[in-house]
Amino acid sequence: MSMAIETVRRIEPAARLRPWISEIRVGVSSPGQIYRRTRLPGGEAVLLFRATGGTGDLTVSGPLRRARYKIGRTIPFFVRISIRPGRARQVLGYPLCELVDQIFPLEDILNSFGRTLCSRLMGDGPDRAAALIEDALSKVIGSKDPNAAPTVSQIVQAMDKNTRATVDDYANLAGLSPRQLRRLFQLELGIGPKRYLRIARLRRLLSTAHSHVPWANLAVDAGFYDQAHLIADFKELLNATPDTFQAARTEYKSCH
After folding, report:
1. 3-state DSSP assignment of residue 101
2. Within a domain: 146
């Protein structure tokens, strides 16, 4: 079975877009080859253009509460835009509780804008894709204040850095009750603060995991109570045990 060989460019967005957009990727490959990808659970929303079917398609994928695994066949090129956690509602004008774990055509969210952008990307090809995306997103974001970060965006950043604090700690930090914080997270992220904290802890562990380091040591360092706690979160969030997931990482191309 022929496995995919792709060339992927990771592009840092223009400075005016960085408060909202963390990364743009443009990938080119030979069509019809097999690929395998994993998207980890997380708070980012993703815009994905695929040059397929003669007209292409442009979708928005909401934050994920559980890992998503995919096996498919490559296409001539794709463009992937990652929207920072807690910022997607500013960009899309849509409550994230309706997007979480879902994939929609972008035109369902942004009407003719999505159709027009899809057509231009298909027509201009991969070389101009990043410039087209940046120009289009600049028009969508318009005059929004980049410094007016939603509360959830700020708390998510804090959670990513400190996974040992509790949801109550973060609610107090924001001057909110835990119930108010949960409501905000559902609106701006689509994932509750308790679950996001679990996701942040797991992603932090995965970023440092190596085959020669015992899971028990990694668990404590990442803020898990013990190895049993770690295994429970792996099964819930990744649908795998630590060992089976780590083994699969050599086969799956990470797409988070």
Report:
1. coil
2. no
